[in-house]
């Protein structure tokens, strides 16, 4: 007598979500290994932030307010590697939104494309999730010399 297999449950994304559902574990490579691995959203965000910062032409991550707080954290050696990064993590998929500042005169579209590629690759390789979307929001451009107030001679004494 043949046994009837039940169809696999369809994993439907909740309305408004870009990924399948909350990540609760990963497949094991050895059949006799028991246990479960849970990867926090903050870990995926940190991987994405590190990968984005490695791209040539990226000056900083985050909006103006976040960068101001980031400068304070950097001064006390407590850099937030997830600044400017939001992720949605599902069981087998992830999506990321990054806000970046591009260094002038780097070609903005090329930098954004490289960030997208680097972040997707890092999440896939290090975390083992399928990346369904990486959105890059360029909200500023950094012009070298803007931060150096001492380099411009004062007109008054």
Structural topology:
Layout: H1 41-53, E1 58-61, H2 64-75, E2 85-89, E3 93-103, H3 108-127, E4 130-142
Parallel strand pairs: 3-4
Antiparallel strand pairs: 1-3, 2-3
Helix pairs in contact: 1-3
What does this entry look like structurally?
It is a single chain. It is built from three helices and four strands. It has helices spanning 41-53, 64-75, 108-127; strands at residues 58-61, 85-89, 93-103, 130-142. It is an alpha+beta fold and 157 residues long. Strands 1, 2, 3 and 4 form a four-stranded mixed beta sheet that branches. 29% of the residues lie in helices and 21% in strands. It has a domain at 59-144: Alpha-Beta Plaits (2-Layer Sandwich), CATH 3.30.70. Helix 1 crosses helix 3.
Number of contiguous helices: 3
The CATH topology of the domain at 59-144 comes to Alpha-Beta Plaits
CATH architecture of the domain at 59-144, by name, is: 2-Layer Sandwich
CATH uppermost class of the domain at 59-144: Alpha Beta
Largest sheet: 4 strands, mixed
Q: Strand-and-helix sequence, N→C?
A: HEHEEHE
Overall average residue pLDDT? 82
Sum up the overall morphology in one term: elongated
